[in-house]
Amino acid sequence: MIAFHLFSDRQPGPALPASGLTLDAVPGETVEPDGVGGFFSSARPTDSGAHSLRRLLPDGGAIRLGAAA
Amino acid sequence: MVWRDVRPIFVLNPTAVDPHIMLQHYSRTVRAHRDSRRWAASLGSRDPPVHEPRLDASFVAEPTGGAWAIVQRASADTTVDPAGFIVSALRPRGLVASGWGEDGIMLRPSLRTWVIPVRAPPHLFADGAGGGWAFVASWRAAR
Fold it and tell me: What is the mean pLDDT of each run of 10 residues along chain A (69 residues)?
């Protein structure tokens, strides 16, 4: 998935590359901004009915739970 | 009101038809607003008909007024012109916002990255500060 941010004057947001920010999310996931520079990515329920929700960093990478600080 | 319109590319010598997306604003009394175009606006292209089909469009309200539109554009020949997505900002009465031109902005990912509109719909969100986010599915070209 690629994110683009456009200002009202049609200029691209400076925090993202003009060619868009590649996110750690695959087609079929729904991505939306989290309001503080990062993103949320949610996937459709699996056959077992499980939903998944992930938080993506402002650089597009996924937050890895349990990773060493 | 939004609709898909299909008409020949070359009126005098029609060889193909390509769909494009038309937008017309109506008031609560179902009259075309006097400030909007009499024959509606073509989204994502200056003048219909266009050579690359416009497949579909989706919208999200802009909290400060108006809306954002993202148009899915196919390509008859991706070696000449890639498929992709076009974003436009719309004023409350349905016209393209000042400064956005009538073609809108074609989102251009980096080289070796493809966006294929027919395989996954895009998503738009207002950012709450007058701007907008667009999220599109992409595939990396094989190395």
Answer: 92 89 89 92 80 91 66
Under DSSP, is residue A39 helix (H, G, I), strand (E, B) or coil?
A: strand
- pTM of the entire predicted model: 0.80
> Which has the closest alpha carbon to B94: B33, B13, B49?
B33
Q: Which residue has the tokens 């939306």?
A: A32
Place of tokens 């901004």: A33
State how far the Cα of B23 lies from the Cα of B58, in Å rounded to an integer.
11
* Contact yes or no for B25/B94 (Cβ under 8 A): yes
User: Which residues of chain B neighbour A31 with C-beta distances below 8 Å?
Assistant: 123, 135
pLDDT, tens only, B3-49:
777 766 566 666 666 677 777 776 666 665 555 455 566 776 666 55
Chain A residue with the nearest C-alpha to that of B119: A27
CA distance A19 to B113: 10
A5, A19, A27: residue with CB nearest B133 = A5
The complex's ipTM? 0.86
B112: Cβ–Cβ under 8 A, 6 or more apart, which residues? B140, B141
CB of A5 within 8 Å of a chain B CB? The answer is: yes
Residue B118 DSSP SS3: helix
pLDDT at A5: 94
Compare all CA atoms of chain B with the CA of A16 and give the residue at the minimum distance.
Answer: B133
Q: Does A15 touch chain B (CB under 8 A)?
A: no
